[in-house]
Amino acid sequence: MRMNAVRTLALVSVVLVFLFGFGLVGCAAEGPAPVCPQPEPVCRCEPITVIVGCGECTRCDEREIQLCPPVRMPQTPSIVKNLVIDLVQVQNGRVVVFAHVDKLITYIDVNGVTRTRLERVPFACEIPIEGIVFTDTVAFQSIVITEETDTLCSDGRTLRERLCVRINVSIQRIIGCRLVCEPDF
After folding, report:
1. Is 156 left (phi over 0), alpha (psi -120 to 50) or beta?
2. In whole angstroms, what is the distance from residue 24 CA to residue 17 CA?
């Protein structure tokens, strides 16, 4: 019984050597100039892009913002702005942009309580750019405030605002591929 176990182990060992080989030890034992498999390089394509067009648009918004409860007078509310570009959609011959400005208006009301009011001011524009196609991508986008006036009414109930923004976009196209290979270790 014991002899069968030894034979079985020897047979399994021989089969494993034939299946998996000796690895690097077998390669080094072959002779003076071993031919070991070299690692395959890992290659990737880095796109080559060029700017194919750019454009801008300016949009303005005027509105009256209700402040409830009203502001304790005299006071100038604190206003913090956050500019966001929501979506830039490249189409054939034009770019459609959706953006907004969030205004956080902080003031002390007539009861002496500090209040914060959020006002979202949306902007949308279409920028014609000759020669671009829907497969092009956005290389650069920005939104800046070009004009802003906030006037608090004398009763403290309304804040009149005028806000103008300029939106810029640059569009790029992939024109080729640079093959970059690194050895795989």
Report:
1. left
2. 13
pTM of the full structure: 0.70
Phi and psi, residue 43, nearest 5° = -115, 145
pLDDT digits (tens, 9 = 90+) for 17-54: 555 655 555 455 555 555 666 777 888 889 999 999 99
The rounded Cα 37 to chain-centroid distance in angstroms is 41
79-102: pLDDT as tens digits: 999 999 999 999 999 999 999 999
- Residue 171, Cβ density class (10 Å: 0-12 exposed, 13-18 middle, ≥19 buried): buried
List CB contacts of 130: < 8 A, sequence separation 6 or more: 53, 93
